[in-house]
Automatic annotation (TrEMBL):
GO cellular component entries: cytoplasm
Family, per entry: Belongs to the PTH family.
Site positions (Discriminates between blocked and unblocked aminoacyl-tRNA): N12
Binding site for tRNA: Y17, Y69, N71, N117
EC number: 3.1.1.29
GO biological process: protein quality control for misfolded or incompletely synthesized proteins; rescue of stalled ribosome
Organism annotation: Sinomonas humi
Catalytic activity, reaction form: an N-acyl-L-alpha-aminoacyl-tRNA + H2O = an N-acyl-L-amino acid + a tRNA + H(+)
Stated name of the protein: Peptidyl-tRNA hydrolase
Length: 194
């Protein structure tokens, strides 16, 4: 049987937050939903889910957007993983990342949460840090602005012009990760060191 992947787009629920940097993970899932072909529907895991395949003959995926606030993402992720019988090594969390520049995408397996409360809650709920992360750079806050305030702001007008390309690249990274593995995705999406 083909393996199924659970792809989580992190963010906060409701229209008030939809354009925030913190919701870039859910924006990437909307891009992936267009590729899968379908719409999200509510699920008992307290998430909006969409089941399908990424491309013709591609891997089976469950796209999930938790309906909880970011710092309570673990419950819906764990519940969806249990419901669909998906182990942590087939979970991909797509999230905002302060430590990499805007318009940059990075991938990794496991590791620390870097102060990201959504990831911390997922690690706790899954009982492991060994799940994949697709990290979408949102840059550092300007001046002395608090990081929490920064991620709850919408992207700037200049960033919004480039955002569709960033979301497309992040969706490409997810697709390559589940099709060909982490190394292939990193080789394509991580620039060579000069």
């Amino acid at each position: 049987m083909a393996e199924t992947w659970l792809i989580i787009g992190l963010g906060n629920p409701g229209p008030k937050y939809s354009g925030n940097r913190h919701n870039v993970g859910q924006m990437v899932l909307d891009e992936l939903a267009g590729r899968v072909g379908g719409t999200f529907s509510s699920h008992r895991s307290r998430a909006m889910v969409l089941e399908g395949r990424l491309g013709i003959g591609g891997p089976r995926v469950v796209l999930a957007k938790p309906l909880t606030y970011m710092n309570e993402s673990g419950g819906p992720v764990s519940a969806a993983a249990k419901f669909y019988g998906i182990e942590a090594d087939h979970v991909v969390a797509v999230h905002d990342e302060l430590d990499i520049p805007f318009d940059t995408v990075r991938l990794k397996l496991g590791g620390g949460e870097g102060g990201h409360n959504g990831l911390r809650d997922i690690s706790k709920a899954l009982g492991t840090k060994d799940y994949y992360r697709v990290r979408v750079g949102v840059g550092r806050p300007p001046g002395r602005m608090d990081a929490a305030d920064f991620v709850l702001r919408d992207f700037s007008p200049t960033e919004r012009k480039d955002l569709p390309f960033v979301l497309g690249e992040a969706a490409d990274a997810v697709e390559l990760l589940v099709r060909e593995g982490l190394l292939a995705a990193q080789q394509k999406h991580h620039p060579a060191k000069a």
